[in-house]
């Protein structure tokens, strides 16, 4: 079982993840239409690029925008969640050891305690985000089962990973479940709204181009996000 | 395929059809017929297939349902944080559903969609600035209005507006003759006070081509005279076109993209014909957006710009005051607290907030910002055509509350509002709430405080 | 009196049984060793208990001790250890770091045995690095 989930299944998951995301990027860019979107993407390129970069930069740093400053607790939780979600798996010691053995590559690795704290942070912030969905009427009304499913898909590898790392009873079961849930997540990313992993940058960039080209950017005005 | 005689999918292209629609007072019969109007689901599906591309589809898909857009929407705030006013909810439950069901929706759904698209969103685009994913729901509502229009589910006034543009190339029944006569009449009325005042029509190669909002021609002709006087005092070489003088676009509010194209092309034709150096647009928000920002795309101009450099009136005023073309009498500056209504369409969507501040620094001694301001300012409450739709008067009036609170909090009773829509909304706000708020365009204020150079003053005829 | 004798026999039997178990454990401990190295400094994961006796019966010494003639125990404990050559970081003489050397020798071999369809040892992280 372990051989299967870390062998062919892992390959399959990574291939679907990678090519799926490339496909999403290609389809998005090909679907842009200067006339329908009313943005001259390929004519006023320098304005477009400037707008896109501003739009992404301001939104990628915590409290970079008015929207985030107005919702400090949410902002902190969302950033903790995403930083944990991205940093932990990539820089986890055990993952890098396996990576080194299988492909001969490895990144800088986190001390185990730090990974442990990050994992707990992901789980706690996920819990916060779920409770927020239930507690706030303006979020509840737009929340559906799909949102909870995605929350489960994206935090399951962390919960199972945490249990496996601490070797609670049934270690082998938890480790296999950890690997499977991570593979489910990888496969889900291109096909669900988890695709915002790349589409966030494209969508933000597009709106940045809109502002950078048409909505004041060419008048030399730098929108304050 | 049931269609009404008034409420249908046909475009208003003749005066007869327009008069017939206008005769139906408040659209009583029109809205009754709407209850019987079938939805052409196949046509709707085909339109979506052809025009709903990756940008909007991605927006609909990756909305993470975080709810940050809620507080960005003045309708949400004005309606006591009603969850049904959350922008994401409003667009997902209308356009989102239509796209998901591939156009397979019924009459009741389309009416609900219409009510949402026109009475719960003014396309102010504020939510787009508060969404982490860069989802601009105002843009999507604009697109949704186009879908509604194509199926005949459009408020009565909007249908009339688009018909006006199709027939008169103006949002009101003002013909070329009416327009030229109005200009002549205004010159005659005002030239005694300002000797040598001209309103040159169709002058080729002028520095400035000035274009207006049809309301000015029809209901507020003195606005044209004031503009003429200010150009006159500033010594500008300017003209107005006989055709292509109208900048506004109720067609844009209605989602009638074909009429939008027709309308802006008359303005661009005037530019080609008269070859001016620059176009100055009157104090109107959506007119600037329609003709200067969106128009080039409707007309298929690949540069994304109008044929000649086009600026908003506030840009011209800021420049005239900065360079001294217009001089302000310091004693006549506005002494009382005064605030500025940032119009969504040329501030948020046009980036002109600096020009507005510059003007206020020259003309006001106690300028008070609203909070929030500039591109973060709230819609006046009447944008996107909402001011003009009788069916949604209640919703509009409820939405005005946010602007009222903002104005009152600024401590100013005078609101400078260089946008017809904002101007109307603030006027109506005063009518509903009676706070003693006053509102004004820039032109009448400037005229009161500008220094008239000696050589332009009327000759002293009466000796004392 | 009969009852007292029964208790006595039971106690003796208990001690004997315990000692048998004890002696067996002793035997296991003799063959098992904790894999650790100063080269790592503080170990990040629990040390691995390695059953040397078991492996002696399965693989030849040189599979692991590829420098059999110089290694420590053949030279009165003064010969070389794994960490003598395999350092924490890669260097230009020895391209295999210590951690990888250990993992290749244990897990790598176990994986090969699994691939060949033979009985094999553990390959999952926590099955060797058992938390205490």
What class do helices, strands and sheet pairing of chain B give?
Answer: mainly alpha
- SSE topology string of chain B: HHHHHHHHHHEHHEHHEHEHEHHEHEHEH
The whole-angstrom Rg of chain B is 22 Å
CATH topology of the largest domain in chain C: Cytochrome C3
In short:
The complex is a heterotrimer of chains A (225), B (464) and C (132). With 225 residues, chain A is mainly alpha-helical. Chain A is built from twelve helices and no strands.
Textual characterization of the structure:
The complex is a heterotrimer of chains A (225), B (464) and C (132). Chain A is mostly helical and 225 residues long. Chain A has one domain: Transmembrane di-heme cytochromes, Chain C (Fumarate Reductase Cytochrome B subunit). Chain A has twelve helices and no strands. In chain A, helix 2 packs parallel to helix 11 and helix 8 runs antiparallel to helix 10. Chain A is globular. By secondary structure, chain B is mostly helical. Chain B has three domains: 116 residues, Fumarate Reductase Iron-sulfur Protein, Chain B, domain 2 (Orthogonal Bundle), CATH 1.10.1060; 156 residues, no CATH class; 120 residues, Rossmann fold, CATH 3.40.50. Chain B is 50% helix and 5% strand. In chain B, the strands form two sheets. Chain B has a four-stranded parallel sheet with strand order 2-1-3-4. Chain B has a four-stranded parallel sheet with strand order 6-5-7-8, sandwiched between helices. In chain B, helix 15 links the parallel strand 3 and strand 4. In chain B, helix 19 packs across helix 20. The longest helix of chain B has 18 residues. Chain C has 132 residues and is mainly alpha-helical. Chain C has two domains: 32 residues; 93 residues, Cytochrome C3. The termini of chain C are far apart. About 4% of the residues of chain C have low confidence. Chains A and B meet through helix 2, helix 3, helix 5, helix 9 and helix 12 of A and helix 4, helix 6 and helix 15 of B.
């Amino acid at each position: 079982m372990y051989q299967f989930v870390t062998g062919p299944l892992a390959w399959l998951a990574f291939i679907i993840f990678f090519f799926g995301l490339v496909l999403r990027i290609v389809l998005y860019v090909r679907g842009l239409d200067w006339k329908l979107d009313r943005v001259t993407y390929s004519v006023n390129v320098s304005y477009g690029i400037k707008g896109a970069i501003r739009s992404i930069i301001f939104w990628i740093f915590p409290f970079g925008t008015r929207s985030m400053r107005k919702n400090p607790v949410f902002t902190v939780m969302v950033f903790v969640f995403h930083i944990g979600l991205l940093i932990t798996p990539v820089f986890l010691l055990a993952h890098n050891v396996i990576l080194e053995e299988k492909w001969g590559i490895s990144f800088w690795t986190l001390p185990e305690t730090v990974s442990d704290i990050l994992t707990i942070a992901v789980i706690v912030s996920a819990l916060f985000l779920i409770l927020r969905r239930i507690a706030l009427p303006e979020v509840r009304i737009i929340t559906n089962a799909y949102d909870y499913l995605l929350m489960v898909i994206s935090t399951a590898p962390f919960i199972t990973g945490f249990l496996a790392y601490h070797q609670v009873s049934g270690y082998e079961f938890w480790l296999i479940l950890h690997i499977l849930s991570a593979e489910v997540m990888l496969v889900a990313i291109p096909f669900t709204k988890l695709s915002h992993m790349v589409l966030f940058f494209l969508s933000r960039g597009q709106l940045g181009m809109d502002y950078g080209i048409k909505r004041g950017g060419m008048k030399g005005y730098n929108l304050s996000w | 395929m049931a269609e009404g005689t008034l409420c249908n999918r046909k475009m208003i292209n003749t005066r007869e059809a327009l008069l017939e629609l206008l005769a139906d007072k408040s659209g009583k019969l029109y809205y009754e017929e709407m209850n019987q109007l079938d939805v052409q689901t196949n046509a709707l599906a085909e339109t979506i297939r052809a025009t709903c591309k990756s940008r909007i589809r991605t927006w609909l898909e990756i909305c993470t349902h975080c709810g940050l857009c809620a507080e960005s929407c003045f309708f949400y705030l004005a309606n006591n944080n009603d969850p049904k006013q959350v922008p994401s909810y409003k667009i997902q439950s209308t356009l989102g559903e239509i796209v998901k069901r591939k156009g397979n929706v019924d009459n009741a759904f389309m009416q609900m969609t219409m009510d949402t698209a026109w009475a719960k969103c003014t396309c102010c685009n504020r939510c787009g600035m508060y969404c982490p994913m860069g989802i601009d729901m105002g843009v999507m509502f604009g697109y949704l209005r186009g879908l509604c229009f194509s199926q005949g589910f459009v408020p009565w006034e909007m249908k009339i507006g688009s018909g006006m543009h199709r027939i008169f190339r103006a949002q009101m029944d003002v013909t070329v003759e009416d327009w030229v006569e109005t200009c002549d009449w205004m010159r005659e009325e005002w030239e005694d006070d300002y000797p040598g005042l001209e309103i040159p029509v169709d002058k080729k190669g002028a520095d400035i081509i000035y274009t207006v909002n049809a309301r000015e021609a029809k209901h507020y002709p003195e606005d044209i005279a004031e503009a003429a006087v200010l150009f006159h005092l500033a010594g500008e070489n300017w003209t107005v076109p006989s055709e292509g003088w109208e900048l506004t676009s109720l067609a844009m509010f209605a989602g009638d993209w074909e009429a939008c194209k027709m309308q802006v092309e008359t303005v661009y034709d005037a530019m080609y014909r008269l070859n001016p150096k620059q176009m100055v647009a009157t104090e109107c928000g959506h007119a600037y957006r329609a003709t200067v920002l969106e128009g080039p795309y409707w007309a298929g101009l690949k540069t994304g710009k109008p044929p000649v450099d086009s600026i908003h009136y506030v840009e011209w005023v800021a420049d005239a005051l900065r360079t001294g073309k217009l001089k302000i009498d310091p004693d006549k500056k506005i002494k009382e607290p005064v605030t500025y209504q940032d119009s969504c369409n040329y501030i948020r969507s046009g980036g002109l907030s600096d020009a507005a501040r510059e003007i206020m620094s020259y003309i006001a001694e106690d300028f008070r910002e609203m909070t929030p301001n500039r591109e973060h300012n709230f819609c006046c409450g009447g944008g996107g055509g909402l001011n003009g739709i009788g069916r949604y008067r209640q919703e509009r009036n409820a939405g005005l509350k946010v602007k009222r609170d903002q104005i009152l909090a600024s401590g100013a009773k005078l609101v400078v509002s260089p946008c017809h829509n904002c101007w109307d909304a603030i006027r109506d706000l005063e009518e509903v709430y009676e706070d003693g708020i006053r509102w004004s365009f820039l032109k009448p204020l400037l005229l009161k405080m500008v220094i008239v150079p000696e050589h332009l003053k009327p000759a002293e005829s009466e000796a004392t | 009196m009969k009852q007292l004798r029964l208790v006595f026999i039971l106690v003796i039997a208990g001690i004997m049984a315990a000692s048998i178990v004890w002696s067996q454990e002793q035997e296991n401990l003799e063959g098992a060793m904790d894999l650790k190295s100063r080269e790592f400094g503080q170990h990040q994961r629990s040390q691995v208990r390695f059953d040397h006796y078991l492996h002696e019966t399965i693989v030849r010494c040189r599979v692991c001790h590829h420098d059999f003639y110089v290694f420590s125990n053949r030279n009165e404990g003064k010969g070389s250890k794994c960490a003598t050559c395999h350092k924490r970081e890669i260097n230009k003489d020895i391209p295999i770091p210590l951690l990888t050397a250990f993992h290749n020798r244990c897990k790598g071999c176990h994986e090969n045995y699994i691939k060949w369809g033979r009985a094999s040892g553990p390959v999952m992280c926590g099955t060797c690095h058992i938390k205490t």
